[in-house]
Amino acid sequence: MTIPFLNLAAAYQELKVEIDAAVSRVLASGWYILGPEVDAFESDFADYCEAAYAVGVGNGLDALVIGLRALGVGPGDEVIVPSNTFIATWLAVSSVGAKLIPVEPDLATCNLDPKRTASAITSRTKAIIPVHLYGAPCDMDPIIALAREKGLSVIEDAAQAHGARYRGRRIGSHSDLVCWSFYPGKNLGAMGDGGAITTNRPELADRLRVLRNYGSREKYRNDVKGMNSRLDPIQAAILRVKLKHLDAWNARRRKIADFYLAALKGSSLVLPQNPDWSEPVWHLFVVRSRQRDALMAHLSKQGISALVHYPIPPHRQQAYAVDGLSSDAFGVSDAMSDQVVSLPIGPHMSEQDARKVTSVVLDFENGTARM
Ligand SMILES: *Cc1c(COP(=O)(O)O)cnc(C)c1O
């Protein structure tokens, strides 16, 4: 018996009839760039996120790059990012030529620590990028209050948080711009690359639309030096189908997370914590263990695939060796990368498989306790 980390083929099987029809509709339409399917998805997704506008782009990294460009972030500016995030958050800042200012997370939430964020602000700071890591909302109110006070932009990386709520409201419009990825493994995943940006600000929505399409409002007239990063209509049609099921699929993730939390309560693992203002969507179920590698080996022997998000923090990556970041300055992130392990979770995981995972974890705990 094997338990996969995430079963994407099962997701397709559940919606096969609807997805096949949506893809055929686009193929038959003869319209393959932007157009009505992308418009329709943008409108559905904006409504879902409780935002006024959504702009579909090529992927999540581009969403962040285009978002930063729309806010006028560039060379000479400093941008505050979490030290513990997927590399895309950092790459976006590097790609617009701004300077990264990594800030360590609050260990309770694993998200940007508002106090450390406040101390990282300088006269050059232009923007803050909170990430809703693992699908759990970052504490936005103190960050937005800070940004208001200092005149900074806030741009959220919500690539792991489709459907999550912060203080009762969906992630999607708390800050200036909210960036999304539809990479297949995300809670709302396409069958290829895709991304979007949501916002309540009409002038920013307009700028995003221009930037994603060659800096052009009108064909062959280029107002700014834009990009080619457009959400594909076939992916938009698939996403429209999947969006209708997102709440139900997130509810199934929550059920598994609740089961894990209850079953592993007495163990030595550090379990995810959820403040009362947070409604996470469990993109990942991340625990911390001092014997992480041995635990993973034990899980693997029993056919359970667990993963590490992320094994090498951005400041330790070769790509950032040249940036002169002091490699010992991010001890919290270093400790996380040594201790975190993500247990399998997904809308197509059975209760039986979840039970098997917890019993194998508890076996390991009892075994090591005896040693
Ligand atoms: C997936 C992800 C991205 C990037 O998305 P792509 O669509 O793969 O470019 C950005 N930030 C975070 C936190 C992610 O998890």
Automatic annotation (TrEMBL):
Protein name from the UniProt record: Pyridoxal phosphate-dependent enzyme apparently involved in regulation of cell wall biogenesis
Entry's family note: Belongs to the DegT/DnrJ/EryC1 family.
Transferase is among the record's keywords: no
GO molecular function: pyridoxal phosphate binding; transaminase activity
Single GO BP term: polysaccharide biosynthetic process
Organism encoding this protein: Aminobacter aminovorans (Chelatobacter heintzii)
Calcium is among the record's keywords: no
Gene3D superfamilies xref list: Aspartate Aminotransferase, domain 1, Type I PLP-dependent aspartate aminotransferase-like (Major domain)
Active site: K186 (proton acceptor)
Keywords: Plasmid, Pyridoxal phosphate
Modified positions (N6-(pyridoxal phosphate)lysine) in chain numbering: K186
